[in-house]
Design brief:
Layout lengths: L2 H27 L13 H24 L3 H25 L11 H32 L1
Helix pairs in contact: 1-2, 1-3, 2-3, 3-4
């Protein structure tokens, strides 16, 4: 396995671990308000973080095992995943859904823009992988 692929695989495993931690966080946030385990935060943003971290971890692990994307794909996917997880982690800690374009809170708009940039980087990385797979098959 190439060094770039190993790094992608490690990042994928790390995202799975983060998804497990977010699942515990979500479980504590779902407790009733009179419970001593209740955290008093919105559950939706935490669920977004858990779901995205698990799904992106799967994508990164599969791309690493495939190993045909090269350095540009690895950098784009890794940077997109880290930016997106950081934005979702911030949003979950602040109770922001980070999907509203006309949100009056300034930090909500900034998180939305970071998420958009992260999605763009991920799509670029997957596009590079797609083009390389087409070139290899012909």
């Amino acid at each position: 396995m190439a060094p770039d692929a190993r790094s992608l695989f490690r990042l994928g495993i790390s995202l799975w671990f983060l998804a497990a931690l977010a699942a515990i966080w979500e479980l504590l946030a779902l407790q009733p308000p009179d419970s001593p385990l209740h955290l008093g935060v919105l559950v939706g943003p935490i669920a977004q973080l858990r779901t995205f971290a698990f799904a992106q971890g799967c994508v990164l692990a599969l791309c690493a095992l495939w190993g045909g994307g090269g350095r540009a794909m690895s950098v784009a996917l890794a940077l997109g995943a880290v930016l997106h997880v950081a934005a979702l982690g911030y949003a979950a800690s602040r109770g922001l859904l980070a999907v509203q374009i006309l949100d009056p809170r300034g930090d909500a708009r900034a998180v939305l823009y970071v998420r958009g940039l992260a999605h763009t980087l991920s799509l670029v990385g997957l596009g590079i992988a797609f083009v390389r797979s087409l070139r290899q098959s012909s």
